[in-house]
Amino acid sequence: MYDIIIIGAGVVGGLIARELSAYDLNICIVEKEHDVAMGASGANSGIVHAGYDAKPGTLKAKLNVLGSSLMPKVARELGVKYQNNGSMVIGFSEDDRIVLEGLLKRGLQNGVKDLRIVEQDELRELEPALSKDVLCALLAPTGSIICPYELTIAAIGNAMDNGAHLELDFPVEKIKKTEEGYEVISGEKSLQAKYVINAAGVYGDDIAAMAGDDSFSIHPRRGEYILLDRECGNLISHTIFRTPGKMGKGILITPTVDGNLLVGPTAVDIEDKDNTETTQEGLHYIMSQARENVPDIPFGKTITSFCGLRSVGNTGDFIIKASDTGWINVSAIESPGLSASPAIALYAIDLLKEQGLNLVKKESYDPIREPQHKFHEASMEEKNEMIKKNPAYGKIVCRCETVSEGEILDAIRRNPKARDLDGVKRRTRAQMGRCQGGFCSAQIIELLAREWNIPYDKVTKSGGDSYINIGRTKEV
Ligand SMILES: Cc1cc2nc3c(=O)[nH]c(=O)nc-3n(C[C@H](O)[C@H](O)[C@H](O)COP(=O)(O)OP(=O)(O)OC[C@H]3O[C@@H](n4cnc5c(N)ncnc54)[C@H](O)[C@@H]3O)c2cc1C
Question: Cα(282)–Cα(261) distance, rounded to whole angstroms?
Fold first, then answer.
């Protein structure tokens, strides 16, 4: 019997688990997929929004501003890269200026610091690659960037190092109310807990309905992206948004913390909660819109495209509340959910306290997680030191991103352990370069097979039946 089960291993479930692991509690995170960060937390813009966008007085506004102020500390403790690059919303006309002034006013009401409108001359200096037609911009110096899946992996890893349990491949199918709390059921497997946190992303309404709460609904809104090679990351330094119109925030252009250039997302409402395919139409739209803002984006240097699904709720705000004794919904966490996530975790824990959860601090709690070693970022001295400690750091497996065997083994061995090719990719960047794994995936398969003690043909790309080697072509 657990004290708490958290359904969903995204950034929200992960940071709630991490916060709770500071207390003397028996915690279990259950996740339907083969790895963590497989929902929206693995495929978004990675922007820690300043907080001028949400309507004053909403949970979105309050938790965005608080969350983004907490993020630098969270990132430092978890060894996750975070960069305060600032963001700007660009305007092309006097009509746009009126919208920007509205956003400025809203930001000030929400408590965002240092917001101001900048004019053409200053803009040219700040971002020379912007279109000459840009007239003015709202500058938000507190806007920042982070790697969303690195944050999720690190939060869950830290929670596990502090005693939380992670149950993967556990799609929750049924919930039963018991005398002491809840029974959470997946096929033949069943777990029990006194309290349940529903952090199941786009499936949050379905999970709530299993527990008898059909008071809200969520629909998926697709967001597609194009990711460009690292040599393009310096084209701009701020995150560039377009003045929002009837169609929302539009296409943004941003450097990533790893030095790539990210362009997107589209915003299309769909029915299927699992459909993360990219479309030709979407990618063309991204290119045409982005070129209006930054004309010289070198789309020829594209290395991949991907898609994430926003959890759009029917209330217009985050839905974070208790719906029954011991049951907390943390749902409809669309943007700015990543930015708000550290604050959402604290808010959810306050709700648990109101529900009677007794919180006793654990002396052994350690909020610090050693960063994932990054060989290519180390100085020559540090590299030599790493190789001296473990010669596997001297053996480069992914040549595009300079990732060593030592880093891949770390990813497979430490919490939450990488179990497939994509899991290694998200933790180390191996296969994330220009060749997209063409050269290194065979070696990574070998390491996964050896470490998990499974045959080569049982190693998958991303869990399920995504097998890579399906038979021998010849005997050698
Ligand atoms: C295109 C896009 C762009 C965005 N950009 C930004 C941004 O720049 N800045 C920002 O602040 N926010 C952004 N967001 C929002 C942000 O990504 C989300 O708010 C955040 O990731 C939500 O995290 P989560 O943990 O609630 O959901 P998720 O990450 O979706 O996690 C939910 C988890 O629950 C699991 N699950 C679902 N059903 C079940 C079940 N039955 N049993 C077990 N597990 C289950 C899923 O597999 C998933 O892993 C963006 C979102 C999208 C889609």
Answer: 18
